[in-house]
Amino acid sequence: MSRSVTVRVPAKVNVQLTVGGPRPDGFHDLANVFLAVGLYDEVTVSPAETLRVTASGPGTDRIPLDATNLAARAAVALAERRGIAPGVHIHIAKDIPVAGGMAGGSADAAGALLACDTLWGTGTSRSELLALCAELGSDVPFSLIGGAALGRGRGELLTPLEVGGAFHWVFAVADDGLSTPDVYRECDRLRGAAVIPAPEAAPVLLEALRTGDTTALAGALTNDLQPAALSLRPALRATLATGTDAGALAAIVSGSGPTCAFLAKDASAADAVGAALIASGTCRTARTAAAPAHGAVVVPPSR
Ligand code: C5P
To answer: Does the Cβ of 142 fall within 6 Å of ligand 1?
Structure first.
């Protein structure tokens, strides 16, 4: 048995996040078009007496290192399923913004699941891994598969989507996170008694992804959680405006925020938008990343 296993797992941006009304279970039905982007966390697991979590990288002072960490819960869930003890040290090398609406916690859970399955030699099937992911959180299955996918239900029922080209993104990272449940609650509050139609994927957006058409994708980006994120964090309006003023084709809050995502014409336009965002002081930092990115993969030990 190898002594440690590392899995690399990507962040996501939602190119469409259409939110239905609240369900009896407290979740919302979604039409959620996920796109994996090239910012990665690396999750390394190695045998240990007891379950232990450590983390390195920006923002890790804000993630729990106890059994409530989603990566720890992933290891426990798999160990329980296989009837073994979850004796494992999980180290998370973070590069995905923490609590940023980019599925960083979900990425770590998917990474820990694949890493533990590999370390323990438990040979869990892809479909069982996906079911375990869905138990851990709505965005976790997508972190495992990567690429692009339409998520139905609460986002966990995935249909992979074709992507016909590369898209160049800039992400403006905020100082503090936003709580996803708070943002959904604010979305419901802002909607009041309005009748909310069943969420549907937009054909024009799926076609833009399929053909790799950046301009068409820019015109089709939507996020129903954006008004709620802006209501809770009004300063994000200035961040969004800075990116569009600097030449981004479109600006959108990423998922539940507060990270703002900007779609650029090409890699050099993305660099210019990133530089303008950093110079503006409207965000903590800005990162460029291309999409689509691969899902969770085991890093070969010999690199
Ligand atoms: O599934 P996950 O644990 O990531 O969800 C976090 C929270 O986000 C939920 O507890 C719920 O408040 C909200 N949520 C929702 N509808 C979804 C996904 C998440 O209301 N489809």
So the answer is: no
Looking only at the bridges linking them, the beta strands covering 167-173 and 285-291 are: antiparallel
DSSP string, 76-135: HHHHHHHT----EEEEEE--SPTTSSS-HHHHHHHHHHHHHHHHHT----HHHHHHHHHH
Question: What is the rounded distance in angstroms from the CA atom of residue 81 to the CA atom of residue 293?
Answer: 30
SS (H, E, C) 257-282: CCCEEEEECCHHHHHHHHHHHHHHCC
Tens digits of residue pLDDT in 230-289:
999 999 999 999 999 999 999 999 999 999 999 999 999 999 999 999 999 999 999 999
Q: Is the C-beta atom of 28 inside 6 A of ligand 1? A: yes
Q: Whose CA is nearest to atom 7 of ligand 1?
A: 181
Structure-token match 């290891």, residue found: 75
The helix or strand, by DSSP H or E, that contains position 189, with its residue range, turns out to be: helix 180-191
The pLDDT, as a whole number, for residue 289 is 98
**Ligand 1 atom, smallest distance to 105 CA:** 4
| 139 in active site | yes
Mean of per-residue pLDDT scores for the chain: 97
Q: Is 180 in the pocket of ligand 1 (CB under 6 A)?
A: yes
- Which residues, given as ranges, of the chain have pLDDT below 70? 1-2, 303
Q: What is the rounded CA–CA span in Å between residue 84 and residue 128? A: 17
108 is catalytic: no
- Identify whether the C-beta of residue 11 lies closer than 8 Å to the C-beta of residue 22: no
